[in-house]
Structures are given as C-alpha cells and as structure tokens.
Amino acid sequence: MNLTEPPVPNEPAIAPEPAEPRARVVAGADVAPASPRLASEEVLAVKDVTVRFGGREVLNGVTFTLRSGEVTGLIGPNGSGKTTLLRVILGLQATASGSVALAGGARDRRHPVIGYVPQKFLLDPDLPLRARDVVALGLDGHRIGVPLPSKQRERRVDEVLLAVGAESVARSRVGTLSGGEQQRVLIAHAIISRPKLLLLDEPLANLDIGSAHEVVSLLATVAREFDIAVFISAHEMNTLLPVMDRVVYIANGSAVSGTTDEVIRGEVLSALYGQHVDVVRLHGRVLVLPVTGVTAGGSTHDVNVLPEAN
Ligand SMILES: Nc1ncnc2c1ncn2[C@@H]1O[C@H](COP(=O)(O)OP(=O)(O)O)[C@@H](O)[C@H]1O
Ligand SMILES: [Mg+2]
Q: What's the pLDDT tens digit per position in 146-198?
C-alpha cells in the first residue's frame, strides 16, 4: 500500500486552533448547505485496493475518491467488506495491492487527517467517564508534546459539545446516555481535532429511526459546516438517502461509486452482484431486489430483499 500520508486517527492538535467553527451546528435541524460553501477538494483517493484473508479475496480492485464537504455512504450487505475497507483507510489493515492517498502533503500533528467512530460498542453505565471527558480524549488520546492549556481545552470541548447538540449531557456518565446521545459524543470526540476525513462504521446500527435521522442530519451538517469528507458505512441505505452526495456500493468484493442516481440502478447493481437485481423506488425509499433461486427450468423463483431494503 502506498500511503502518501500515514493516517493517524483522531490525532490531537498541539497548539490552539481558531476558536470558532464557522457556524453552530443545530442538531437534528433540516440540513441546509453552509453559505458560502467552500470549494470541494479531493481528500482521499483509494485506488485498486485488494485485500485477502488466507487466500480469500474480500476486496478486489476497489477504487473511489472522497471530497471535502460531502457525505458518502459506504453501502453493502453484512460481510461485504465495509469494516475491512475502513481499516485499510486507517492504515490498520494491510492490502495485497493498491494504494490509499490522503490529501494534504506530509503529516502534520496540528492538522490530523482522519477522525474515526468505530462500530458501536457497549459502554458500561458505571464507567466513570463523563461525556465531556470522552470528547477531551479526542484532544489528548495520542498526545506527544506540550498539552493545550486547560482553559483552552475546556473551551474547545464546550464548543464541540455545543456543535453536536450534546451540551446538555456533558456532565452525564457516557454509559448512561441513549444510543443517539452516545453517537453525538463519539462524533464530537472524532471531530474535536479538526480532521479532514471522518469515518463512521455503522453509526446508525442499534438506533431507533428518529435518532438515526437526527444523527444523519448532524453528520451532513458536520460535513458542510466543517468542510469534512464524511464517509458512513451502512448495510441499509434508506436513512442516508436524504443526505448522501455519493455512494460507494460494495458487494462480491468489488465496488462501484458515483452519485446515488448513477450507482443505485438495476443494471449497475446487477453487474456488481453478478445476478439480476431490480431497483425499485417506492415512497421515497429504495429497494434492491435480487432475483435468485431460478433453476434451469425456471420452476422456482424466489425474490429476496437485500438488507438495503429493510
Ligand atoms: N481479520 C480477518 N481475518 C479473516 N477474515 C476476516 C477478517 N476480517 C474480516 N474478515 C472477513 O472479511 C469479510 C468482510 O468482513 P467485514 O469487513 O467485517 O464486512 P462488513 O463490515 O461489511 O460486515 C467477512 O467475510 C469477514 O468474515
Ligand atoms: Mg462491519
């Protein structure tokens, strides 16, 4: 793998950053593009990435780019390689071939490249960490060098908690928060060091539909307001549809990427799955329907709904 810039997840800033985000992010509000939008730039280029586990090819020639200020969905069935691909981008997973290039030149500790929200894990309600402590860890977790003065640290934590709409739970134990509140705190943890790229692995799993919509809306606003490339993995794309600028659809080890309209089409997904797939749009939702089980004589004909259609 040819990393032009080795990623360091959530690496902290060493010196104070400009205090104010460009606008307050109103959690759960309708997504409005920031005005004026910064010109979008390429943040990540993944090229021809192949990953094998014990000779089994899990990813095969995966290629796509991510741009600042945009939300991209990483969509595919369970086991299709979404987490593996995120680990490749983080530099945690070796590749058989291919390259991952992060924009921005040489690594700079003041400007970390990647923020990461891993797949949800259970937090013990008795864990003696307040929400604001978890967010502060995003500044300190990988620290080498002189720490920020504590007043500045506190102010940064307050700003980010406000930006994600988690200020009211700042002093609550993180394990006692609802799933949606925990996601907000983890997002704050990931963006406090001002990354260019924010990766989230299935952040909507285990959330009720209302909380999922709020988190999606927050992520879109984070992308626009902070000009971050936001990359969200999900096995179910419908919740992401309202905000997804682009999609990387992964199945059978291969991926196709483009705008949602370009990718979520019968002929495109049929080629990817290697079998006939119907894409049905119904009441603003997308259903991806593979037709399987057709015998040589055509006597059986089962229609399975892929996870996307749930
Ligand atoms: N470290 C590993 N060793 C062997 N197989 C793995 C490893 N990590 C993932 N896999 C396999 O790779 C495939 C893709 O896994 P994963 O990336 O977790 O998929 P997803 O996140 O889309 O559910 C699965 O078949 C999984 O069992
Ligand atoms: Mg996964």
A: 566 688 889 999 999 999 999 999 999 999 999 999 999 999 999 998 999 99
User: Is 209 part of a structural domain of the chain?
Assistant: yes
Backbone phi, then psi, for 195, in 5-degree steps?
-75, 165
Same-domain status, 162 and 310? no
3-class DSSP assignment, residue 37: coil
Q: How far apart are CA 165 and CA 225, in angstroms?
A: 14
- Exposed/middle/buried for residue 49 (C-beta within 10 Å: 0-12, 13-18, 19+): buried
272 within some domain: no
Shared domain check, 282 and 136: no
Centre of ligand 2 from the C-alpha of residue 158, in Å: 31
Task: Give per-residue pLDDT as tens, 222-243.
Answer: 999 999 999 999 999 999 999 9
**Same domain for 260 and 281:** no
Residue nearest to atom 3 of ligand 1 (CA): 53
Pocket of ligand 1 (CB under 6 A): 53, 58, 76, 78-84
Q: Out of 59, 74, 75, 84, give the residue to mutate to test ligand 1, the one with the largest number of ligand atoms within 8 Å of its CB.
A: 84
Q: Residue 307: which domain range?
A: 277-310
Is the pTM above the cut of 0.90? no
Ion ligand 2 residues within 5 Å by Cβ: 82-83
